[in-house]
Amino acid sequence: MPENAGRQRSWPQSLPQSESGVSSDTIPYYFVGDCSVKNVGSAKASPLLGLADWLPAKRWLISTGRWFSATLLAITVATTVAASADDHNPLAGDPKAAKAGEYEFRINCALCHGLGVRGGGRGPDLTRAQKKHATSDAVMFQIINNGIPGTAMPANGTNGQGVGMTDEEIWELITYIRSVEVKAPAKPVGDATHGKELFYGDANCSLCHMISGKGGRLGPELTSVGGNRTVEAIIDSVRNPSRRLAWGLTEPTKEFAQEYETVTVVTLNGKEIKGVVLNEDHFSVQMMDTNEQIYLLEKDKLRSFQKSRESMMPPYDAAVLSDKDLGDIVAYLINVGGK
């Protein structure tokens, strides 16, 4: 019978302290086990625990099956402590920093977010006080530095546009963005309830566009567009859809996201297919036709291949969709995008 059989396992009072003599801040130590989390004390944390001190604790954790859980939680606690340390913008409210941040914005951000910070049709309007992703200055710092995976927001200095920014320059940029935020809520642009009726009804928007899983797939998905685009950009995309094509698939290997270009191909057997480009490289193209049929085609096996920047979405002028009705649809998109 194992030596400790039938014996109640006890929790150590704290992790062994380092003998390195390096002083640092006091942090709590946690152990995980039996579906519970226990604070077992605090001590002076140093960059490296003494090997002689740490190994007995590690053996105890492994023997009790708690090593993985404790390691995972230790990483989480360390990350939380590090994040909270950088939560405050050291340049907040500094007009000189804001001016320098405006310069950084023009070089690195204006291509997508517009020179006025109010959105460029691709990047969101940053003058809004309530932002979808950046809930604090610390989170905004991480977004600017690391990007947002799966979106067109690149990591700092990785997209070939502008230059890489230092930590100080990122704080300057955040100071500038905060200085141009509009604190007052925007005036409603229309009747969101009527806009929803139009979106799924007479305006036929849902034939090509999807919101929250409901609608068509040929055009861009619009669930978040109301929170990411300005009112003016949304209206312009309806009135003049070919002026600035929407972005689709984003990939780390591509400098820019795939745009919703129109493509017409003729296969070797003479079949003509027209639709939108989903993805493309030098050798192949993925496309969707107007019936939402998806094709993967090798370019060297096509009789012809033509792309156009004329959007498949027809322009909706005031004779087709009145300003009031369009305002109601935009109000609906804003209402959905703000959730």
Brief write-up:
With 339 residues, the protein is an alpha+beta fold. 32% of the residues lie in helices and 16% in strands. It has 4 domains: 26-85, no CATH class; 95-179, Orthogonal Bundle (Cytochrome Bc1 Complex, Chain D, domain 2), CATH 1.10.760.10; 192-245 and 314-337, Cytochrome c-like domain (Cytochrome Bc1 Complex, Chain D, domain 2), CATH 1.10.760.10; 262-308, SH3 type barrels (Roll).
Record the SSE blueprint.
Elements lengths: L25 E8 L2 E9 L6 H13 L3 H19 L9 H14 L1 H4 L23 H10 L20 H13 L12 H8 L10 E2 L2 E2 L9 H4 L2 H9 L22 E6 L4 E9 L3 E6 L4 E5 L3 E7 L14 H15 L2
Antiparallel strand pairs: 1-2, 3-4, 5-6, 5-9, 6-7, 7-8
Helix pairs in contact: 3-6, 5-6, 7-10
Task: Provide a descriptive summary of the structure in words.
This protein is α+β, with helices and mostly antiparallel strands. The protein has four domains: 60 residues, no CATH class; 85 residues, Cytochrome c-like domain (Cytochrome Bc1 Complex, Chain D, domain 2); 78 residues, Orthogonal Bundle (Cytochrome Bc1 Complex, Chain D, domain 2); 47 residues, SH3 type barrels. It contains ten helices and nine strands. The strands form three sheets. A five-stranded antiparallel beta sheet has the order 8-7-6-5-9, with no helix packed on it. A two-stranded antiparallel ribbon has the order 1-2. A hairpin with a 3-residue loop joins β6 and β7. α3 packs across α6 and α5 crosses α6. The longest helix has 19 residues. The chain is globular. The protein starts with 25 loop residues before the first strand and ends with a helix. The N terminus is likely disordered.
